[in-house]
Amino acid sequence: MKIKEMKVGTMIAVIVLAGIILMSVFAPLIAPYDPLEVNIKNSLQQPSAQHWLGTDAIGRDLLSRVIYGGRQSIILAVVATALSMLVGLIIGVIAGYFGGVVDMVITSFSSIFQGLPGTSMMIVVAGMVPGIPGMIVAIVITSWVGFSRIVRGEVMKIKQEKFVEGLRGLGAGNLRIVLRHITPNLISNIIIIFTTRIARVILSVASLSFLGLGLQPPTPDWGVMINEARVHFRSNPLLIIAPGAFIIAISLSVNVIGDALRDKLDVHKDSLRDY
Amino acid sequence: MGIVKYIGKRVLTLIPVLLGITILAFILNCMTPGDPVEMILTRDGDVMPTQEQIDIVTERLGLNDPYPIQYLKWLKNSLTGEFGQSFVTNKSISSEMVRRLPYTLKIAVLAMGFTVVMGLGLGILMAAFRDSWVDRILRSLTTIMLSIPGFWLAILLIFLFCEKWQLLPSSGYSGFASLLLPSFSVACSTIGVSARLTRTSILDELGRQYITVAKAKGLKNKAVVIRHALPGALIPIMTFLGTYFAGILGGSTISEMIFGIPGIGSYALDAVKAKDFPVIQAYVLYTGLVYVAANLLIDILYIVVNPKIRVGEKAE
Asked: Which architecture characterizes domain B99-311 according to CATH?
């Protein structure tokens, strides 16, 4: 996308997203304090010249914690989204390309997963399988299905096209056709779905950490911070507002960019209207 | 006749889904690290249980049987509504579930109501005033709505409505008013999603030929949107209702916890924290059933609205 063609809103979203990513990468250089440094004497300070956003219940600098707050959850969201798309891609391509019995088995298996209420299952799985792997597993097993269905449909369409027939005529094997010729045709779909999905997964990661089922205290993480601040935010509302604002900023900017990409790549397919 | 047959078929396809839910609920239990027997025996104090005690409890819970037998026994009990007792409170799980389910259902139904009414309303407004400043503002608003984490909104709403302005009760259940904030904080993102979908569906419909005819007849823009485009646009919107319901059920868990509503969601969260396996299994089954039932209802509504389906084709 050329910069000139971008709408103002999209441009702001790109700047905000880039800003948050840079802030997370360079957090150790930017943050004025150690985000883990406890100072009980300094607890629940109002914003001041020393602590621009004030301090939390055990005297940690809020600004520093907010600056560090996206580091792990953003990476986790990217990993979880990528993994669930990889699982969905593999399963969807297999179902779509081979069709027949394979497709039938996969489709009925998927429909079971689709019949489950995703968010509830995600909370339960994240609660039962401990730690960060548990959170990733929970997100992956509750979000691969939608994607595999879209991929399956697209692969079935591409399979009908003349060039695939031609390739087979030239003696290309199944694996080669799938990897070299069908998957690359899915790239624009994948990009769009990735952006819409990751906005949602960022919120899921934050929710799970908020519930105590994802990242754990004392990690400086936006979701964890909001949970920790539930008791004390009345004396310094920024304790809730600051991390919340960053979660909203990142998911909003990703959503806006996703919309722009969808318009740009002119996707009219219903399947991709993954609202 | 066609409708009955279609619904019958739908119900049949639900059987594997229901079985899948029970298997998942069961597997979750087996997958989980930690020995439930030891957990029960060590819960009360720090005394190490004797081997004899462990054997007795293991036998009582039927944990010596191979997994498939355990599953069948558990399934048989679950089908009769017997989920056993909570590891933590020793209370009957099914009576607790039955007591709590109505709260969760009320929140879910009210949130669905918000989603449909406000989603459609905002979507219609945007479509009717497309590309004007109304449309632009509402489009930004709906995009913001779907980017707000529900738990954050919930805390903010408590702070504003319950503490600052003291308009609504903040915690626990004391009638309809205490459901408003939990439902809205759950519904916020789905309202945004459904409003955006309504807008695009109506605009798609407006591109169709019969709309051009209606316009040629001299009908006003707003009349065209509401009288002609909306009914056609309702169909794609309805297909998404099931997805919204899944989000609402899950979100309700967090909302119940924050607002102190004694529904099955907050029960499950407590159980997850305490590793109270039988309660979690029962929760998976209950939410699974509620979700399946809700989807069936939406499906039936869908074919009543859209007679094309009766011919046999179902738009996924």
From this structure: Orthogonal Bundle (1.10)
